[in-house]
Design brief:
This protein is an alpha+beta fold. It contains 3 helices and 5 strands. This is Gamma-glutamylcyclotransferase AIG2-like domain-containing protein.
């Protein structure tokens, strides 16, 4: 099955995290599991009210791995793509949806998951003039 068709869990690290505004709008009642997780090889930058994960060796982003209910999967992924400004193929101006390994607290090894990373143009700008989120967790405690 092609990556675009796979029903992978989604790693969330910003406004889609439990307790944040977009979790209620897009995910509440549509998931079967949510668990703490870490994305290695990325760092967080502040955005205008939300963060951007930017690929960077040695970095780590903290968030949750969300397993979407099977009957809601297509609609949830489409709505997340719209929220993040991505086309159905995962490409976008601000974010891109890509498959990355994510580590969960209890699992041995990594789980393949969809992750919304800053698109390359945005990532270049953030690396030069962005504000990094210390500790890799948003919102800041």
């Amino acid at each position: 099955m092609a990556a675009e068709q796979e029903r992978l869990p989604v790693f969330v690290y910003g406004t889609l995290r439990p307790g944040q505004a977009n979790h209620g709008r897009y995910l509440r009642g549509r998931t079967v599991a949510e668990e703490p997780a870490r994305l290695r090889g990325a760092v967080l930058f502040e955005g205008p009210g939300y963060p951007y994960a930017v690929a960077e060796p040695g970095g780590e982003v903290r968030g949750e791995l969300v397993r979407v209910a099977p009957g809601a999967y297509a609609a949830v992924l489409a709505s997340l793509d719209e929220l993040e400004g991505c086309a159905a193929d995962g490409t976008g101006e601000l974010y891109v949806r890509v498959v990355r390994p994510v580590l969960t607290e209890g699992a041995e090894g990594a789980v393949r998951a969809w992750v919304y990373l800053a698109a390359e143009r945005t990532a270049r700008r953030l690396r030069v003039s962005g504000t990094r989120v210390a500790g890799g967790s948003w919102p800041r405690a």
